[in-house]
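> call design_seq(struct)
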């Protein structure tokens, strides 16, 4: 029997199995009492992290108190260890790490945004790229067409800045901040002009267009619903199409981000009686349906 067994397995293998069986017999590791504090549940870890991120000025003790209100028994030292493990600094430094969404909500009433989009226009000199500059009031979604040019040089941008901050008719009156990307067109001189009039430029981190999502969405709507469906011969025809779209955008188009309402509705909205009419713009590219007053 042993002879047949030895023909299949080497002596070293048999000895190794024996050592393993002996080790298992004398293994009492599962019966040992674990030293130290019991592990913190994932539920508590998640709650600590979310509380710290939502309240950047709160220290460990205040977070501990907030969690105690919710029935979580956790020490301030454990809270500190959790935050340190996940790369979240103590309150004095953490308070400078304001989340982008928190900044947006805190300044919603005085926040604006600006961005360029481009369109190709046929001119006497051939196909020319025009740069269109828009500014948005984020709370209301109102849009201002600041201007267009095939060459957005600094002198042109400075005039745009003066128009936007004009004391009487400037679109940025009452705004404290304006979001913009890091395009070189928004030069230090242009940003300084805005800042001197009380509008602080807030430059987006590199390669983060989603942080200016509202204006990016407008640019997409402008192109999908209007500009990409037309061929323009000359700057005037293009500007006329943009202004027609803006009239539609403000007075006729429903916006999902505003609970599917119109930015500046007319008196005809919500009428339940009267003949249904259609208002066409740009040859029927843009349509608005409403009831005529009885």
């Amino acid at each position: 029997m042993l002879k047949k067994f030895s023909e299949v397995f080497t002596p070293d293998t048999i000895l190794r199995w024996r050592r393993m069986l002996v080790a298992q017999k004398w293994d009492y590791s599962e019966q040992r009492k674990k030293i130290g504090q019991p592990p913190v549940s994932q539920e508590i870890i998640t709650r600590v992290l979310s509380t710290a991120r939502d309240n950047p000025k709160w220290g460990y003790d205040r977070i501990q108190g907030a969690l105690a209100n919710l029935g979580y028994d956790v020490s301030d030292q454990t809270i500190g260890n959790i935050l340190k493990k996940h790369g979240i600094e103590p309150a004095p430094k953490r308070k400078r790490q304001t989340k982008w969404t928190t900044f947006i909500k805190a300044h919603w009433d005085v926040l604006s945004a600006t961005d360029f989009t481009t369109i190709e226009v046929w001119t006497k000199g051939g196909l020319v790229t025009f740069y269109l500059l828009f500014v948005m009031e984020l709370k209301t979604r109102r849009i201002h067409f600041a201007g267009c040019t095939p060459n957005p040089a600094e002198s042109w941008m400075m005039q745009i800045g003066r128009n936007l901050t004009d004391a009487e008719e400037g679109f940025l009156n009452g705004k404290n901040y304006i979001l913009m990307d890091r395009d070189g067109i928004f030069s230090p001189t242009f940003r300084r002009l805005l800042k001197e009039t009380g509008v602080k430029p807030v430059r987006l981190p590199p390669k983060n267009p989603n942080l200016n999502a509202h204006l990016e969405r407008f640019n997409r709507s402008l192109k999908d619903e209007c500009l990409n469906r037309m061929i323009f011969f000359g700057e005037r025809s293009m500007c006329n199409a943009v202004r027609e779209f803006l009239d539609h955008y403000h007075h006729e188009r429903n916006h999902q981000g505003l609970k599917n309402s119109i930015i500046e509705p007319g008196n005809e909205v919500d009428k339940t009686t009267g003949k249904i009419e259609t208002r066409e713009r740009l040859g029927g590219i843009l349509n608005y349906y409403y009831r005529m007053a009885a």
